[in-house]
């Protein structure tokens, strides 16, 4: 795990295409949504590699683009563009991530299986 996380460390990681999750050094729990301090104990958060696989809980789409709420476990849920044949109940993997207009985006697909 990295040292302390400032507000830009998470976005920098995602902008480089690396899916990382803030974790509390004291509680050993994910700090999600991303923040520099733990919501439980206010301890500092550092970044560590995130679990890239999860389950699609909800899905919707329009104009050929599909999005889904993906549960990555341990309280981490993301809204991701769905690739492949991913649908509600599918196991997916975060295949890419980045930053658009100052906000993180994720793509998750079942095509890696």
Task: Describe this structure as you would to a colleague.
This protein has 113 residues and is mainly beta. It folds into 2 domains: 7-49, no CATH class; 53-109. It contains 1 helix and 7 strands, in the order αβββββββ. The protein has one helix at 7-15; strands at residues 20-24, 45-49, 53-62, 65-71, 77-83, 91-100, 103-109. The strands form 2 sheets. A 5-stranded mixed beta barrel has the order 3-4-5-7-6. The model has no long low-confidence stretch (mean pLDDT 90).
Short overview:
With 113 residues, the chain is mainly β. It is 8% helix and 45% strand.
Residue runs with pLDDT of under 50 for 5 or more positions: none
Count of structural domains: 2
Span of the ends, CA to CA: 28 Å
Alpha-beta classification: mainly beta
In N-to-C order, the SSE pattern is HEEEEEEE
What is the overall pLDDT average?
Answer: 90
Task: Describe the protein's topology.
Blueprint: H1 7-15, E1 20-24, E2 45-49, E3 53-62, E4 65-71, E5 77-83, E6 91-100, E7 103-109
List its salient traits.
113 residues, mainly beta, five-stranded mixed beta barrel, 7 strands, 8% helix, globular
């Amino acid at each position: 795990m990295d040292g302390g996380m400032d507000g830009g460390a998470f976005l920098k990681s995602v902008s480089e295409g690396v899916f990382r999750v803030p974790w509390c050094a004291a509680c050993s729990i994910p700090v999600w949504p991303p923040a520099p301090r733990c919501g439980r104990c206010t301890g500092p958060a550092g970044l560590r590699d995130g679990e890239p696989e999860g389950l699609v809980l909800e899905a919707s789409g329009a104009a050929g683009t599909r999005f889904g709420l993906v549960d990555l476990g341990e309280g981490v849920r993301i809204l991701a563009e769905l690739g492949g044949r991913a649908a509600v109940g599918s196991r997916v993997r975060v295949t890419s991530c980045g930053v658009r207009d100052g906000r993180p985006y994720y793509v998750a697909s079942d095509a890696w299986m």
